[in-house]
Write a structure and sequence with these properties.
two-stranded antiparallel ribbon, mainly beta
């Protein structure tokens, strides 16, 4: 990456599909909101950013806690 990745981009904090969305809350929780019935499920806590596969079979996320070797501009 030519530029430091200091803050997550829009696509790393929200993913919208036809019937559900995934988003990070202000307290760093990754939640899944059903657009069909309005139910909310917490997928993970202490999340910095995430990604959802196109078929929604996989959700991956990066922990918000920094490690000893983390650089603030280039988190692990």
């Amino acid at each position: 990456m030519p530029e430091p990745h200091a803050t997550p981009g829009y696509g790393e904090v929200m993913a919208v599909f036809d019937d559900e969305l995934f988003a990070l809350t202000t307290d760093d929780a990754l939640v899944n909101l059903s657009l069909l019935d309005g139910s909310i499920k917490t997928e993970a806590t202490n999340v910095r950013e995430f990604d959802v596969s196109h078929d929604r079979r996989w959700v991956v996320w990066q922990d918000a806690a920094q490690t000893e070797t983390d650089l603030p501009e280039w988190p692990e």
